[in-house]
Amino acid sequence: MSERPTFTEDQVQRYARHIILPNVGAAGQRKLLDSSVLVIGAGGLGSPIAMYLAAAGVGKLGIVDFDHVDVSNLQRQILHTDADVGRPKVESALEHLRAINPSIEVVGHDTLLFSTNVFEVMDGYDVIVDGTDNFPVRYLVNDATQFLGKPLVYGSIYQYEGQATVFMPGPETPCYRCLFPSPPPPGTVPSCAEGGVFGVLPGVIGSIQATEAIKLLTGEGQTLEGRLLLYDALAMDFQEVKIRWDADCPVCGKEPTITELIDYEAFCGVPARPE
Amino acid sequence: MSVTVKLPTILRKHAEGEARVGAEGSTLREVLEHLEAAYPGITKNVVAEGGGLQRFINVYVNDEDVRYLGSLETEVSEGDTVSILPAVAGG
């Protein structure tokens, strides 16, 4: 090795199992320490995503959420505890992430994401991980990452089923709109609040998202780019389907018709959120 | 042709809770028609009113999105798996 990564004594001990691990090693751990990830949502998916990325030593971890911890969250949102009920999720998240790994930088973004602030919030982060819970923000995050040229680690859950993949920026590689060109009409897909969600499910999907984020940062392994991983907890069935790049995609296609952020509530047919 | 259809949670209520059901047909259209005859209402959100596929529910024959094959006219073979996949947003 020409460059010898330097670690503090604490880092050598803390990351010992990564440093001796083939395909991470000292060089990979150095990359993680020098990298930054933005996790959107500190809920069911965001909890394991943020906890594993903090533990792995991602140098700077941003957490976006506007909500407060509710007792009904605790069945699956393992980043928060009973004592946190009523606190802003970002505040609770930062405290627990610092407890997991005090040596990384954790940054809270206590806000809803809008077309007006998403570029600012995403600024400076290497990888974006989507753990949000609604269609308008999913399309917003997709378009913003495509415009900014940042990789997006996607995960989504409903009841007992989850989906995960990686969307890379740039032409000839699919984005979320290539997978689902249109959001479902309002009312056709119930939310987790309406339909329920199996508590462990976001643990599985969120852990897969954390895995993919780490692989993107270290450059090792094969990511889920171009593949959608489907998980059915009831049947205990994993399946993989192909995601094709859509040459007619309005955002990443050959002749894009959407070249700036739009009104995502209107696009999804839902009422605007107060800004 | 006999195929296996994998149903998402949201459609299982139409099929007595089953995650996988059998169906017959030589094209995706025939498979979905067979499915609808067996479980009325199950393809209501899969096939649009005009007769094409909805853009927020994907259908795969094995691991290929039928939008990039022949859409509803995609041919199916004995033993194929047809998966219906709605967009979900939960997190």
Descriptive labels:
heterodimer; A: 275 residues; alpha/beta; Rossmann fold; 8-stranded mixed sheet; 11 helices; 33% helix; B: 91 residues; alpha+beta; Ubiquitin-like (UB roll); 2 helices; 16% helix; globular
Notes on the structure:
The complex is a heterodimer of chains A (275) and B (91). Chain A is 33% helix and 16% strand. By secondary structure, chain A is an alpha/beta fold. The radius of gyration of chain A is 18 Å and the shape is globular. The N and C termini of chain A lie far apart (51 Å). The mean pLDDT of chain A is 95. Chain B has 91 residues and is an alpha+beta fold. Helices cover 16% and strands 25% of the residues of chain B. The mean pLDDT of chain B is 94.
Summarize the structure.
The complex is a heterodimer of chains A (275) and B (91). The relative contact order of chain A is 0.15.
Q: Layout of SSEs?
A:
The complex is a heterodimer of chains A (275) and B (91).
Chain A: H1 9-14, H2 16-19, H3 25-33, E1 36-40, H4 46-56, E2 60-64, H5 89-100, E3 105-109, H6 118-122, E4 127-130, H7 135-148, E5 152-158, E6 161-167, H8 176-179, H9 192-195, H10 201-218, E7 227-232, E8 237-242, H11 264-268
Parallel strand pairs in A: 1-2, 1-4, 2-3, 4-5
Antiparallel strand pairs in A: 5-6, 6-7, 7-8
Chain B: E1 2-6, H1 9-12, E2 20-24, H2 28-38, E3 57-61, E4 64-65, E5 81-86
Parallel strand pairs in B: 1-5
Antiparallel strand pairs in B: 1-2, 3-4, 3-5
